[in-house]
Write a structure and sequence with these properties.
By secondary structure, the protein is α+β, with helices and mostly antiparallel strands. It is built from two helices and four strands; from the N terminus they run ββββαα. The radius of gyration is 25 Å and the shape is elongated.
Amino acid sequence: MGRVVKLVSDISGVEADESAFEKCVVRRHPVISEAKRLDVLPGELDGLRHVTALVVIEIGQGPLKQQLVVTHQEFSALVGDDVVRAAPGTRGRRLGAVIRAPEAQK
């Protein structure tokens, strides 16, 4: 008894040779909680346009943080580029921080 395996695109259902397929990993999507892999043929996702100048922001405190992805145009309408450039970084000490050596015990 033999087994025949047919490979078909997850998008179009078109059958093709294994070497023709590309892998598309969906990292974030409203209906999934983990990354998913799709087998697609070249050209099947050409209708998607690449979005440039994205801004990823995180809002909230502690465990109540949420991450938003918006276009630069949307974000800069609310927060100017000069404000972002002048803001302190999230790593290391804040600008102007003074480190004081502990006083020697007497």
